[in-house]
Amino acid sequence: MFHQVKQAFRSPKFLVGFIIFTSLLAAAIIYPALSMWHPLQIITRPGFAPPGRYVNIQDVIQVRPLDRRMILVDVDANRLGNVVADEDVYNMIYFLETFLGVPVGHLSVDDQATVIYYWNNYYDPTYRHAGMIMAEHLAWTRFHAQLQVALDGTIIIAYRDEEGYLQEGAGFDTQDFVHIRDIVNVYHFPLGTDNFGRDMLTQMLSAMLVSLRMGLIAGLVATSIGLTLGLVSGYLGGFVDDAILFITNIFTVIPGFILLILITYSLGPAGRGVTVVSAVIGLTAWPWTCRAVRSQVLSLRNRDHVNLSKLSGHSMPRIIVKDILPYVASYVVMALILQISTAILAEAQLSMLGLGPNTAEVATLGLMMQWATMFSAWQVGAWWAFVPVILAIALMAFSLNLMNTGLDQVFNPQLRDS
Amino acid sequence: MGDIIKSDKIAVDRAELEKRPSVLRGDKVTKVFGYGNSKTVAVNAVNFNFREREVISIVGESGSGKTTLAKMLLGLIGVTEGDVYFKDAKRDISSHRKKKEYWRGIQAVFQDPFSAFNIFSKIDSLLLDCINLMGGKKFSPEKKYEMMSEACSFVNLKYDELTNKYPFELSGGQMQRLMIARIFLLKPKILIADEPTSMVDACSRATILDMLMKLRDEVGMTIIFITHDIGLAYYVSDTVYIMEQGKFVEVGSAEDVIISPQAEYTRRLISDVPKIHEEWDLSTV
Known about the structure:
The structure holds 2 protein chains of 2 kinds. Chain A is mainly alpha-helical.
C-alpha cells in the first residue's frame, strides 16, 4: 500500500493536482480562522463593494470636504437643508407615498422634520421594492446613507483641557490631513463584499471547505453504495447480479441530474440541510462505480487466488474483503476522487437552481453563485461576486481530476505518456 | 531430475490397482454453460473412478473441458447433471461447513503461480490458513512455526527466509514449491494438479514433479494431473484419461494408451509432441 502511494507521487500530474488541491485546502482552513470576521458576518452596508481598502465613513468624514461641509454647519438651524435640496425632499415624499403607504397630502416640502421622521421610521434600505430597478434602489440606499450621516454624525473636534473638560477646538479646512495609520477602522476586502456587505474572500474560502465537505460526504456515500453493490453483484452472480444490474441500469438510464432535482425539490426547503443534500447527491451518483467495480470483480472471481482462498475454507465475506477488495482498491480510490469532484459541481448546479442546501449558517460555493445571480451582480458589474467563485469551483474540480488522471496512469501503465 | 522420474517409472499392477478402494467416482458428470442458443456443453456425461494412491492424468487440448471437470471435482463450480462420489459416499457440499470438510480431503495446485497468490497478503498467512483448516487454530505459535518450517524444508525452502515476505518477492519456481508446501501441511486424500509445471522452467519442473511423487508416497494420496502434455502423463501416471470436447475418448494404463493408442485423437496428440531426434510434424497444427 505504501509502495503504491509512493508511486502515485512520482506521477507529475498527480503531484500538480495534489499541490493545487492541498493549497486550496490549506487556504480554506487557515484564512477563515485568521480572518477578523465570521464568514457570513455583515460588515458594510448592503450593496456590492469592489475589492480594495475601506475606511469607515465616520473616520473619513473629517477628510472629505463635502462631508465636512455637511457637519460643520450650525446643526440647530437647518442641517437638513445642507444635505438635501428641495428636490430631494420632494422625491422623499413621493417615495414615502408610493412605496411606503403614507397618505397623500400628509407631508409637505416645507415640513422637513415630519418628512425625516416618517423616513427614518418607514424606509428599510435592505428591502427592494417591486417595480424599482436596481440603479434606483442603489441610489436610494446611498441617499439614505448620506442622510443618516448628516442627521446623527455630529462630530466635534475637541481636546481635553487640564480639568478634563472637552473644549471646542478650531475648525479645519482642505489643508488638514491625517495619517492613514491613525484611522482606526481600515478594512481590507481583497475580493470586495457581496450584496449583503460580507467579506467575499473569507466567505469564499470557508464556502470552499463546506463544498468540499459536501463533496466528500456525497463521494463516500456514492462510493460505498457502488462498491458494496458492485462487489456483491460481481462476486455472487446469478439472480442477485441480475437484480442489482437491473436497478443499476434503471439509475443509469434516468439522467442523474434530473433525479437529483426531483428529489431535492420534493424534500422542500426545510429538509434541505447541508448533509441531506450531499447524501442525496451521493445517492444518485453510485451507478457508474457499481458497474465498474462489478465488471472488475467478474474477472477477479475466477482467478486462481480466489479459488485457492475458497479451498482454504474461507467464508464468502472474507474472500470478498481480503481477496477481491484489495485488487479493486486503487480503482475505487480513483472513482472516489472523481465522485468528489462531480459532487462539488452538482452542488453548484443545484444551488444555482435554488435547490441547494437551505441554510443561513454556512455558505457553499453554489449558494454564493446563487446570491450573486439573485442580486444581479452581473448586471451591476460586480464581477468580484462571481468570478472568484467560478474560478474556485473550476480549480477544485481541475485539481481533483488531475489527481485522478495521474493515478490512472500509475495504475494503468498502458496510459502512461511515452 | 527428469531421468529420475523416468527410471522410477514402474508399471503398476493393474489387478492390484483395481482392488484398491475408490476415493472419487463420477457417474455421468455433466456441465452445461449458458441457456438456449448460447448453450455450451463443457463436460458431457463422463464416468470415472479414481482409486487410492493412483496417479491419474486427464489429457486434452485447450477447450476440451478438463479444467471445468477439475473445478467440478474441487466443488468450485456446480455440477449440472450426474453424481460425484467421494470415498464411495455421495458428495454433499451444500453448506459452507460441509464444503470445508470436503476441502480437507481434496486440494489443488494451480497452473500459474503468479496468479494463485493473493499479492496483498504475506506468505505466512497462506500457510497459517492451512493449519487453521486442519483444525490447528489453537496450536501454540511454536508448534505452528515448527509445522511451517517442516513444510518449507520438505520443498527445499527455508521458512526463516520467507517469513514476512510477499508472494511477488519470490520466483515462479519458489511460488510453485510453496504451493506444494501447502499441500504438505494439508495432506489431503486427493490432489488435483492443474498444469502444475507449465509455467515454470524445465529444471523446476522436474523438482516439482519429484516432490509431488514423494508427497504421494508419504501421504498416500491420489494425484490427478490435468495436462495437455502427453509426455508428462506417460511418465508420471498409472492411468490416463484422454478428453476431447467434454468426453473421455480413451481410458487405460499409461502404457496402453500411449504405446498403442486406439482413438484417432490420441494418435494426433502423441504425434504433436516434439521429439529431439526426429523432424517435427506440423501438419496437424
